[in-house]
Amino acid sequence: xxxxxxxxxxxxxxxxxxxxxxxxxxRPVLREREMLYLGGALAQSPVLSExxxxxxxxxxxxxxxxxxxxxxxxxIAVATAAIRTAGNRExxxxxxxxxxxxxxxxxxxxxxxxxxxxxxxxxxxxxxxxHGVIDLGGGSLEIAIGHAGTxxxxxxxxxxxxxxxxxxxxxxxxxxxxxxxxxxxxxxxxAEAAVEAARRRPGATVAIGGSIRALTxxxxxxxxxxxxxxxxxxxxxxxxxxxxxxxxLPMTRTERLDVAGVKESRADQIATAALITNTxxxxxxxxxxxxxxxxxxxxxxxxxxxxHEFPLGTELRDTSVARMAARFVSDPTHSEHVAxxxxxxxxxxxxxxxxxxSDREVMLYAARLHTIGxxxxxxGYARHGAYLLEHSELRGFSPNEIAFLASLVRxxxxxxxxSEYEPYANLTKASRSRVDxxxxxxxxxxxxxxxxxxxxxxxxxxxEPGLIHVRFLGDDPRIRRDWATSAAGSIARALDVALVFDRxxxxxx
Length: 509
Fold this sequence. Notes:
With 509 residues, this protein is an alpha/beta fold. The chain is 50% helix and 18% strand. The strands form 4 sheets. Strands 8-7-6-9-11-10 form a 6-stranded mixed β-sheet, with helices on both faces. Strands 3-2-1-4-5 form a 5-stranded mixed β-sheet, with helices on both faces. A 3-stranded mixed β-sheet has the order 12-13-15.
């Protein structure tokens, strides 16, 4: 089933169209938004003017029509803080419902927090312990604490970026007095929630919302040296937010547009967002916030159609990789066999590479996905596969982990990574060394089944100083000499050891 969600928010109206998959997962197929800043309008007047209502009706109609054209079988429409607090909300809801072709579901703060919490549970690899979710929107701030997709406590406070910006910021750049008023008001409004959150002591806190994502792009551009396509499970620290705030506050809008990661649609309010977020960090005594790319809209679909038992940690990653493989891998027998051989090679060379169990897990994910690029074209399929991974919404992986995984897929064919590939080049030196070793192992495993016949069932390694004797086991387990030479070269480069193959198991070309 294909479902459209129209989210009528305080900064923007957004559309998500997604397919509900077997097992309760969802696969987004379209996202669109229109920036309206209704929260700012309501900071100036308790009711929305006819002009603003007309803008809202037009945007809702366009998003609804787009969802229908995309093939949505059903539309869900929800409204949050701006419309919730408007003095003429009944008139607004009636007109927007007609434009959306369905009754608007008016969310209170508690329900808004719950749906956002569900979206996070389906998106971020979380531990079993209780965790918090913070949703900073244009008109309100929702805070929830719970675990496994179930909210145990939540609250909503009238702290919103669009609302505060319109009420207090009348100069460009923002005057110090205005910044102080915003910070003081945020502290006052969140004080009670901060005490309750501290009492519940969540193990981690995840942030959602467009303002947070806008700030995350700036932090990522500064700290990573590049901006990943998807920033799910990236984390921002208190120091990074404070630095971003200090950088943005003295700037004019024009100057902010020159900052890496700043989009034009967020340039007006991003300094206000940084100030509010920094104050939240201070009041809740947070050291870091994880960022979820999914939130309320995804939560609304999952709540209605999806599974309500959410995989945690590694299980979420396993499920995400399995779904991607089911969609893009045409020969799963080959991919699983390469994973089996790579795991054997990893275990038998452990004393040489010294890598961890988590490294092995990422290598096995790469093995299962190493041929996804063939869904685009055979020629250059490793490059196509890496691109798909970079821009996929693979749940449970941070941007660095995606870069790591994409690097393995990108270079498994040649066995030697290149610094010309940006995600690899911007990994730390230690991470690049780990990629080098894993690429060599994955390349060798792929070489052993390059004929796609699984004739090499197992591989046995016998170690001597400076070299490894390789023996294949299976039904007529032979490979081409040039393939073996390629594998030996990548292993020698990464592990500083020579591979010696039995001559009777090599086919001359």
